[in-house]
Write a structure and sequence with these properties.
single chain; mainly alpha; 13 helices; globular; disordered C terminus; transmembrane helix; membrane; EmrE-like; EamA_dom
Length: 303
C-alpha cells in the first residue's frame, strides 16, 4: 500500500514539474517574439539558420560526451522533425505573413492546443481526454481573441498559415518517440542541428542576393532567440513532454501569444486593448483546467 502511495506521489510531482516546464518553455518563446521585430530587414532564413546553429552549438557544448548515438531510423525522424517543426514552420510562417495579416496567422496557429489534444492521444492509440479537449478549446479561444485583428485573408495565405500550424504541431508530435528513446536533451540538441542545416540550405537558395552581416541590434536579437527561444525553450518543452501527455503540454502553447502581448506592450511594439486582455484571461482559465487534469493522469506512459 505504501509503495503505491509513494508511486502516486512521485507521478503527481513529475506531472506538476512537467506543467511548470511547459509553462517555462511557452513563456520563453512568447517573451522572445518581440525580439523578432529587430530582424524584419534581415534575410529571414539566414537568421533562422544562425539562430538554430548557435542553439545547437551551445547544447553540444553543455552536453558534450552525454549525448547518445542515434540509429538510422532515429536520424530519419530527426531530419523530419527539423524539416517540419523548424524549417517547414518558419517557411510557411514567412510566406503566410507576406499575404495575410499577422493576427490572422496567429489565430490559425493558435489552434495548436486543439490539434494536440486530439492528435496526441490518437497517435498513442487511446481516446482523447474530454478535459484536455475542453481545456484546449478554451485556450484556443483565448489565443484567437488575443491575436485576431479582424483583417481579411486570402485562401492561399490561410493555407500557408495552416502549414505553419502543422509544423508547430509536428514539433511536438514527431519528437515524442525521440524523447522516449534518446531523452529530452538529445532531442533538443539534434532537432536544433537539423533545423540549422535545413534552414541553411534554404537560405543559400533564397537569401544569397540579400546576404549581409547583421547589425548590432540584429545580432543581439539572434543571440536572444538562440539562447532563450531555441536552446532554452526546446530543452524545457521536450523535458515537459517526457513527464506529461502532449495534450496537457499543448494547452500551454496558448501562453505564447499572451506573453508576446505583455512583452510587446512593455517594449512599446504592441497595442493593448481590454478585449485582448480578456482573451489572455480566457487562456489562463484553459491552462488552469489543463494543469489540474495532470492530477488524474499517470505519467508512466505519457506520450
Amino acid at each position: 500500500m505504501s509503495l503505491s502511495v509513494s508511486r502516486a506521489a512521485e507521478q503527481r510531482s513529475g506531472a506538476w514539474l512537467g506543467t511548470l516546464l511547459a509553462l517555462g518553455s511557452s513563456v520563453a518563446v512568447g517573451s522572445a517574439i518581440a525580439a523578432t521585430t529587430a530582424l524584419t530587414e534581415f534575410p529571414i532564413m539566414t537568421g533562422q539558420a544562425v539562430r538554430y546553429g548557435i542553439a545547437a552549438a551551445l547544447m553540444f557544448a553543455l552536453f558534450w560526451g552525454r549525448l547518445p548515438r542515434v540509429s538510422t531510423a532515429q536520424l530519419t525522424r530527426i531530419a523530419v522533425l527539423g524539416a517540419t517543426g523548424l524549417a517547414g514552420f518558419n517557411i510557411c510562417l514567412v510566406l503566410a505573413l507576406q499575404r495575410v495579416d499577422a493576427g490572422v496567422v496567429g489565430a490559425v496557429v493558435g489552434a495548436v492546443p486543439v490539434v494536440l489534444a486530439l492528435a496526441g492521444p490518437l497517435m498513442a492509440r487511446r481516446s482523447p481526454s474530454m478535459r484536455a479537449v475542453v481545456a484546449a478549446g478554451i485556450v484556443t479561444t483565448g489565443a484567437v481573441i488575443v491575436q485576431w485583428s479582424g483583417a481579411a485573408a486570402d485562401p492561399v495565405g490561410l493555407l500557408l498559415a495552416a502549414g505553419a500550424l502543422a509544423g508547430e504541431c509536428a514539433f511536438s508530435l514527431v519528437a515524442i518517440p525521440l524523447v522516449r528513446e534518446i531523452g529530452a536533451k538529445a532531442t533538443a540538441t539534434y532537432a536544433a542541428t537539423a533545423g540549422a542545416v535545413i534552414c541553411g540550405i534554404v537560405a543559400v537558395l533564397i537569401d544569397v542576393p540579400t546576404a549581409r552581416l547583421p547589425t548590432m541590434g540584429e545580432s543581439a536579437a539572434i543571440l536572444y532567440l538562440a539562447v532563450v527561444a531555441s536552446a532554452g525553450a526546446f530543452l524545457l518543452w521536450y523535458a515537459a513532454l517526457d513527464r506529461i501527455p502532449v495534450e496537457t503540454a499543448g494547452a500551454f502553447a496558448g501562453v505564447v501569444p499572451v506573453c508576446a502581448l505583455v512583452t510587446g506592450v512593455l517594449l512599446g511594439v504592441s497595442e493593448s486593448s481590454p478585449l485582448r486582455f480578456v482573451g489572455a484571461g480566457i487562456v489562463g482559465v484553459g491552462v488552469v483546467l489543463a494543469a489540474r487534469g495532470t492530477r488524474q493522469v499517470s505519467t508512466a506512459g505519457s506520450p
